[in-house]
């Protein structure tokens, strides 16, 4: 009986493709704390540029083919179109963004996923007026030691 079980086990192991029998390999990625700190630092840089209408800096934080999905205004299909919207926003007085909360998850072989909530304020006559809050998902791409946002989903605006 032992001989039969051993033979069956050996035969089964030969028939199973090696990719299935082996555990999946993880990509080498920063530790969770390091990744969180990195993305939070990048988030701060992006929105410092946003809050100060620094269009040159803001532009650098997005991939050329960025897609921005907004539950109220629709889809923006490129960095060029995103920057046209940003320029218009700045010309009308700008907005201020305050991060409320965020979580960061690794996307092996690509970058990171940032999911959070933020609040916005309109600038009217130099003063902040509450404009509402929203949830967001940013897909960060890590390429050649550079982090850029490749996809944005902005939703649940109040």
From TrEMBL:
Keyword presence, Signal: yes
What are the boundaries of the signal sequence?
A: 1-21
SUPFAM superfamilies on file? NTF2-like
Which domain of life, per UniProt?
Answer: Bacteria
Gene3D superfamilies attached here? 3.10.450.50
**Which keywords belong to this entry?**
Signal
Ranges of residues in domain DUF4440: 39-149
Q: Name it.
A: Nuclear transport factor 2 family protein
């Amino acid at each position: 009986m032992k001989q039969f079980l051993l033979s069956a086990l050996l035969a089964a192991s030969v028939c199973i493709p090696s990719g299935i029998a082996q555990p999946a390999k993880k990509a080498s990625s920063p530790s969770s704390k390091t990744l969180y700190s990195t993305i939070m630092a990048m988030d701060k840089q992006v929105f410092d540029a946003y809050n100060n209408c620094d269009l040159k800096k803001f532009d650098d934080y997005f991939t050329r083919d960025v897609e921005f999905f907004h539950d109220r205004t629709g889809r923006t299909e490129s960095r060029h179109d995103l920057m046209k919207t940003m320029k218009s926003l700045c010309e009308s007085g700008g907005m201020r963004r305050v991060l409320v909360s965020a979580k960061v998850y690794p996307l092996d072989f690509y970058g990171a996923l940032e999911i959070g909530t933020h609040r916005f304020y309109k600038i009217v006559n130099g003063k902040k007026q509450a404009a509402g809050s929203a949830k967001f998902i940013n897909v960060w791409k890590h390429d050649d030691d550079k982090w850029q946002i490749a996809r944005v989903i902005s939703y649940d605006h109040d």
